[in-house]
Structure formats: C-alpha cells, structure tokens
Design a protein that fits this description.
Helix content is about 40%, strand content about 25%. By secondary structure, it is α/β, with parallel strands linked by helices. The two termini are about 20 Å apart.
C-alpha cells in the first residue's frame, strides 16, 4: 500500500472514531473498538492523539460492585466553539455553541438590513466580538461561523445569489467575513441550517428522512434524504413559495410573475394584509388566533388549508419519516396546530399519512442559529480529524 493511502486511511479512521465518540460519549475504548470494528491498539492510538489535541479527556466512572472501575472517554466542551447566525430583514440573531453542541449564549440585534449589506457585516462583527468577550472565548478557539440566510445561496462559495427578503444579490458574505474573522465561514439557506437543529443530535439524528417547512417572511422547505441535505441542481430544492396552490389564478400577481403561488396566501406579509390595521406583527396575529377572534380564525383556517395541500405534495414526493412545521405563527399555537392536523387528515393521501409524523418545531428563536453553528462545527471537526 502506498504511503499516501496509509495516511488517508489513518485520517479516515480518526474521523470515524471522533464521530463515534460524538454519538456515544461517555464511552469506553472497548465499546469504541466493538462499534468501529477497529483493533484496541488502533483505538488507543487515536484516542491519545485526540486527547493531546484537546478534543476529549478520560475519567473513571463511579464505583462498580465487581471488577475494575472502567475508564470512559468524555468530550471537552471547551475544545472549540462555533458561532451561529441568522440574518433576517429586521433582526440578526447570534449564538455561541460549544464542542458538545450546547448553546451557551444567544442575542438578538434589532436592525434594518434590508438592502443594507455592509451594515449587516458591521453588526455581525461587533456582535460576535461582544459575544466572545462575554463568554471569555479567545479568538484562537473560535473555529468557525455558520450563517443562515433566506434566499438562494451558493453554499460551496458562500455567496448569496439572491434574497427576496433582504434585497441582496451576489453578496460574497463568506469571503467578506473571513477578512474580519480568522476562521472558516459557511453560508446556507436558513432552513437548510435549521433542520440540523430540528432532528435531535446532529451526530445521532432522530430522523434521516424528514422535511422542515418554514413559514416566515417567505415560505420554504428543507429536505433531508438518507441523512444528507437534498439541494437540487443549484441548491434551490425546497423553494416552495412558488408552488401553485390556487388554480383559479385570481388575485394579485406574485413577484415571480405567476398567480396562485403559495407565498401569496400564507407568507407573513400576505397574512398581515388581511389583518385589521391595528395588527402589525405576526405575534399579534397569533395572539388573536389564540383569543379566537373571528377574523383571525378565518385567516387560520385558510393558512391551514393551503399548508395542508403543500404538505401533501411534499409527502407524496418524498415519503419522509416526519414533516416539521416552524414559524412564529405556528410554534406554541396549539389551536393552529390542531386546525392544521385536521386539514392534513382531509388533504393528505391516507397511505402516506399513516407512515409519517407531523411535528412542530420546538426550537423557538434559536433553530437557525444552533443549526448553523452545528453545521460549521461538523465541517471543522471533519477538517481537524483530517
């Protein structure tokens, strides 16, 4: 075997062991050997290397009734830190995540970055530095920044090709932020980031085939197939704002030029147009639904209907294990959730419906932030193991 092939195998084995520890910690060397099917000698060598690099430590368990106290491998939470960011029109959310995947701190910055790209960069730089200082994290331990943005993203190069919500086009945000921070930067559509926080532990996910549907300033979906994000040809898979749900085609044109698009009926801006003038936020609209105000219940019924049709289309196409719905109007709104379940029972093909779970996000404000931080962490760990 060539020396280069031997080195590549060692790198791959190291990644496999670290990934296994992420899933199983605390775990013994014997358990790792059985799980990875590597020899105890190989496991010992790799564990020692990872311990020297600061990724883990070994400690004794509590006393056992018989035999020696086993030594278990634990991850070091302070081995490295990653930053997750969500950029929306009027708020930038930022969080810091440790090596174990715990969200240590989180902040929201109210602002208007619609058509103000440079302002967004300045806010991010200032806020990230504040967050690092507040949590006593040195820049040397900041291993990367993950950013979720609404729109069409070239995730390989970190370029925002177009964002209807932000009015950004061809913004090379990864490159621009790398000039301000000496670390890796990963950029993707916000729902493709959020789904990583919705499936449980990113290293030991609850689902390997699921779809996240997000209702916000736009409507989108993120599709996970066999544990991998499905992106389509140009990373536009899941842009369900423009699927046709009204064949009558009456009413206003969508900005895409068509009539009958889903976003015309359930996006936040569309819903607020139907609300009384004193209702100027989705939070107020959701409260009106919970209070069972007549006009709000009419909107709720329409949204549930169109969303159920969209969910049926997605379920029939991909047959997922679960479809998770997120959005400020949906989360913690049990009345709407009940209405949507009833609509889904009417409009989703029964043969499909009995085999997938309809769930609602429990991530509240932090889903995109945490998912983005986990995404960059997973990528950085891959690099570190190589």
């Amino acid at each position: 075997m060539k020396k280069q092939d031997q080195m590549q195998m060692k790198k791959q084995n190291k990644y496999i062991v670290l990934d296994a520890i992420r899933q199983m910690a605390p775990v013994s060397r014997i358990q790792l050997s059985k799980y990875t099917k590597m020899s105890p000698t190989t496991i010992t060598r790799i564990v020692q290397e990872l311990e020297q690099e600061g990724f883990l430590y070994e400690g004794l368990t509590e006393e056992t009734l018989i035999g020696r106290r086993p030594t278990l491998i634990h991850l070091r939470g302070d081995a490295l830190f990653t930053i997750g960011i969500e950029i929306d029109c009027f708020v930038i959310k930022i969080g810091i995540v440790d090596f174990i995947g715990e969200l240590l701190d989180f902040k929201e910055v109210k602002c208007n970055v619609k058509n103000h790209y440079e302002d967004a960069l300045d806010i991010i730089q200032h806020s990230v530095n504040e967050l690092l200082e507040a949590n006593a994290v040195s820049t040397e331990k900041l291993q990367g920044i993950g950013i979720g943005i609404p729109g069409v993203i070239n995730h390989d190069e970190g370029i925002v090709l177009s964002s209807e919500q932000l009015l950004w086009r061809n913004c090379n945000i990864a490159s621009d932020l790398k000039e301000r921070f000496d670390c890796d930067v990963v950029v993707d559509n916000e729902l493709k980031m959020q789904i990583l926080a919705e499936i449980g532990d990113v290293y030991a996910p609850t689902f390997s085939n699921c779809i996240l549907v997000g209702i916000g300033t736009g409507i989108g979906a993120s599709i996970l197939l066999d544990g991998e994000l499905y992106r389509g040809t140009h990373n536009r898979a899941g842009e369900i704002s423009h699927i046709t749900v009204n064949l009558e085609g009456d009413g206003e044109h969508c900005h895409c030029g068509k009539r009958g698009c889903l976003s015309l009926y359930i996006s936040e801006s569309a819903l607020l147009k139907r609300a009384p003038k004193n209702i100027d936020s989705i939070e107020q609209l959701a409260m009106s639904m919970i209070a069972k105000e007549h006009w709000a219940l009419e909107i709720q019924q329409d949204v549930a209907l169109y969303l159920a049709v969209a969910i049926n289309n997605l379920a029939c196409l991909y047959e997922p294990e679960a479809i998770i719905v997120s959005g400020e109007m949906v989360e913690h709104n049990e009345l709407f959730q009940q209405e949507l379940r009833e609509m889904c029972s009417q409009y989703i093909w029964s043969d499909i419906q009995q085999h997938f779970d309809l769930q609602f996000s429990n991530q509240a404000k932090v889903g995109v932030v945490k998912g983005a931080a986990l995404q960059i962490q997973k990528q950085v760990i891959n690099y570190a193991s190589a």
